[in-house]
Design a protein that fits this description.
Length: about 190
């Protein structure tokens, strides 16, 4: 008599950079059946500090409600971000994307994840081509695949879900420059 072999399919592990909880909800719910997801909080450029704290608290609340895994690299380093972009403000998004994706790729490599990705791909206001180029470049450098998905298709769903859950919803990307653009229309 031969023993029955049970084949257990394991999901690929993805480290998912989270800029904020409202941008995470729809992609998370759409991918969680396909992947073993761990969130990754790292956003050293968000301004002001209270905005950073509000976003972080909302991610922690989502984690508690969903009982999902999230790694926190809780480092607020506004000065480094500003020093990097000064006199190159028109390229600030490139530096911002790179810093956050770099750290996500490093953690993905260390944690033996199959993929890394980001909620930045959810926003219709972000530069998807640039995000993808940076992600794919870092994937080669760190030997961890970059999961590119155009999460913008879930834009309205994410907004509705975050409103239903009474999530804190910010009105700008996060950096001091995007905050200025929100209020100063000149």
């Amino acid at each position: 008599m031969t023993a029955n072999k049970v084949s257990v399919m394991t999901k690929n592990k993805v480290l998912f950079h989270i800029c904020c909880a409202p941008c995470y909800v729809a992609p998370y719910f759409h991918l969680k059946d396909e992947f073993d997801i761990t969130g990754f909080w790292y956003n050293p450029n968000i301004h002001p500090y209270l905005e950073y704290e509000n976003r972080l608290a909302e991610v922690k609340r989502f984690q508690k409600e969903e009982n999902c895994n999230i790694i926190y690299k809780d480092e607020y380093n506004l000065e480094k971000f500003l020093q990097t972009v000064v006199y190159r403000e028109n390229e600030r998004c490139k530096f911002c994307y790179y810093e956050r994706l770099l750290n996500t790729a490093i953690y993905a490599k260390r944690g033996k994840f199959d993929y890394f990705t980001t909620t930045l791909l959810y926003s219709k206001f972000q530069q998807h081509k640039l995000i993808r180029e940076i992600g794919e470049s870092l994937a080669k450098q760190y030997s961890v695949k970059f999961l590119y998905r155009d999460f913008r298709e879930f834009w309205k769903e994410g907004i509705e879900t975050s409103k239903q859950r009474n999530m804190y919803r910010q009105q700008y990307c996060g950096c001091i420059y995007s905050e200025k653009e929100r209020y100063c229309k000149t």
